[in-house]
Automatic annotation (TrEMBL):
Segments traversing the membrane: none
Pfam families per record: DapB_C, DapB_N
Chain positions recorded as NAD(+) binding sites: 12-17, 38, 101-103, 127-130
Natural source organism: Tumebacillus lacus
Signal sequence segment: none
One of the record's GO molecular function terms: 4-hydroxy-tetrahydrodipicolinate reductase
Domain Dihydrodipicolinate reductase C-terminal: start-end pairs: 133-267
Protein name from the UniProt record: 4-hydroxy-tetrahydrodipicolinate reductase
Pathway: Amino-acid biosynthesis; L-lysine biosynthesis via DAP pathway; (S)-tetrahydrodipicolinate from L-aspartate: step 4/4
Amino acid sequence: MGEEKIRVVVVGAKGKMGRETVKAVMNDPELDFVGAVDRTLDGVQVSEVLGFDCGEAAFYNDLGKALIDTNATVMIDFTNPSVVKGNLDKAIELGVRPVVGTTGMTPEEIANWDRECREREIGGLIAPNFAIGAILMMRFSAMAAKYMPHVEIIEMHHDQKLDAPSGTALKTLELIAKEREAMGQGHPNEHETITGSRGGDYEGMRVHSVRLPGYVAHQQVIFGGLGQTLTLRHDSINRESFMPGVVMSCKMVMNYTGLVYGLENLLD
Ligand code: NAD
């Protein structure tokens, strides 16, 4: 037989991203979907819950047990900001490579997990956005900011999203900040009649988070210059948009050591 498949456990498999992820893992010949984690479904077959063929994999309510029982190589996490941190700790402790799409961590926390991954000699990835179009939007934004440093971001997501601004917006701001000196934007004497009208402030750049039913994940990066504006916009119109990036990441984390933050760092 050929090379061994990568054994994948999906945490948050019953959620919107988790369900799509299980489908994508099932459809990839190099990946083996071996288990799922959800707080309430211990012992239930995943196929029964998700309504499509998920092989023999079952749900666990305990991540540690799931990773050990299934002899997992990779843990994919699409849960929420309050539980992902414990999940990352557990996976790294057990030497299982984390591929994490959940957002809402601090740079200090990420640096800590990077150190732990290096100690265990495993690779891992936290990606605020797995969609290739979003990665390109971030890259183009950093390029544009060099020449058009006045910039604001409007990001739009569904109204079940817990963190604001989105991880993608934060990552975009960080990338732009590398190309642009921090500075105030707007009128020096501007004041808000309604608090928050000018949005969040990151080194003078403003970020606005829209949360409405109907949206999936969207972002506009608007640059303003003398007599002109430039708008870069990306839309994930459904969750399939993230799956090529998720599947690719499961394979790439096998080939390096340490925790990478941002899928763009794995692309040339
Ligand atoms: P969702 O609410 O539909 O799914 C989250 C799932 O996690 C739920 O099924 C919930 O039961 C489960 N869960 C909660 N606590 C758990 C625990 N302790 N153990 C196991 N499972 C647990 O949310 P979603 O829309 O699927 O998004 C999940 C996360 O992914 C969010 O943080 C979101 O911002 C992020 N996201 C990332 C990307 C990306 O490309 N990186 C894209 C979309 C969404």
